[in-house]
Amino acid sequence: MTIHTSFWTQKRTFALFVIPGLSLYIVFNICPIIMGFFYSMTDWNGYGKRYHFLGFQNYAEIFEDDRFRSALLFNIKYSLFLVFFTVVLGMILALLLNGSFHGVGFFRSIYFFPAVLSMLTVGLIFNQIYYRALPPFGKMISSSLLSQSLLSRKNTAIIGVLFVHVWQGVALPTVLFLSGLQSVPKELYEAADMDGITPFRKFFSITLPFMIPVLSVVLVLSLKSGIMVFDYIMSMTNGGPGGATESIALLIYRHGFTEDRFSYSIAEAILAGIIIGSISAIQITASNKRKVEV
After folding, report:
1. In sequence order, which residues have a C-beta less than 8 Å from that of residue 95 and are 6 or more positions away?
2. DSSP per residue, 23-53
């Protein structure tokens, strides 16, 4: 009887500790999602009191919207390049910083420094660099690519934004990869050295399989960052030139806050969330099948 009473007392105590956090999560996360889904099926403009129920009309219109398709194609291309460069550069930097050499702590801090800066601030700084610093330098070295701002041309604007995103976004993946490298058993490396296995083979046969869980997290974070990129584009190109860098997030912002199509922008945001969730679920499932159990 005493054990039974103690069990339920413990359960009530746990419930009392969970209720505040759960309540905040429901109020600030679950309820807005439910309300957003409801408003996405109306023609509400975001501030008026009247609206009409439209059903799935907004969603049907999105699939016929050329601007949304163009923004989606931009985000797909942008995300693929971002994921590739972030993973490759992050892995290379992590392998270099995983060694034991003089000043390794200093270099680790330097590479992580961009992550603490505001994305909007970084975008504004590089915007000035592209327009004021690079063109004179490009003319001095007679480079047609750099003699004009990368952000002012349709075919190079994405390169300019992507470079800044990779420069700042590679910091966190580097730290995650670095922590993942610490979990690889050193005995495997020692056995591989005794067998005369090359460093290239050791990386793909030993290091990479143990890095699958971390790699999965980095892929999801990079993919989400690429699909929902907003700050860099807003501060550097504002979707230009000629809509060449208009992303889904920027399109959602414009529809909701400048074109008074709030319910339509909510529908776009829900679709973007479904896309991110679906791709992430597929990627995580595929990664879990290949990870190594320690």
Report:
1. 177, 181, 203
2. HHHIIIIIHHHHHHHHHTTB---SS-S---B
Q: What are the DSSP calls for 133-151, one per residue?
A: IHHHHHHHTT-TTTSS-GG
Q: Of 100, 92, 104, 108, nearest to 203 (Cα)?
A: 92
Rg, C-alpha atoms of the chain: 24
Rounded to 5 degrees, what are φ and ψ at 53? Answer: -80, 125
Q: Give the number of other Cβ atoms within 10 Å of residue 83's Cβ.
A: 20
Q: What band does 59 get if pLDDT is binned at 50, 70 and 90?
A: very high
- Whether 245 shows a pLDDT value over 60: the answer reads yes
Q: Identify the CA nearest to 283 among candidates 239, 232, 218, 228.
A: 218
The amino acid present at 63, given as its one-letter code, is F
Q: Which of 215, 207, 202 is nearest to 174 (CA)?
A: 215
Q: What percent of the chain is modeled with pLDDT above 90?
A: 43
The answer to whether the beta carbons of residues 183 and 259 sit under 8 Å apart is no
Whether 223 contacts 79, CB under 8 Å: yes
Spell out the long-range contacts of 110-115 with Cβ–Cβ below 8 A and sequence spacing 24 or more: 111/170, 111/171, 111/174, 112/171, 112/172, 112/174, 112/175, 113/171, 114/167, 114/168, 114/171, 115/168, 115/171, 115/172
Which amino acid is residue 243, in one-letter code? G
**260 φ/ψ sector (left φ>0, alpha ψ -120 to 50, else beta):** left
**Domain chopping of the chain, boundaries:** 58-288
Digit-coded pLDDT (tens) for 164-213: 999 999 999 999 999 888 888 888 888 888 878 888 888 888 888 888 88
Backbone angles phi, psi at 247, to 5 degrees: -90, 170
Is 90 in contact with 170 (CB distance < 8 Å)? yes
Would you tell me how many other CB atoms lie within 10 Å of the CB of residue 159? 13
Domain 58-288 is classified in which CATH homologous superfamily?
Answer: MetI-like (1.10.3720.10)
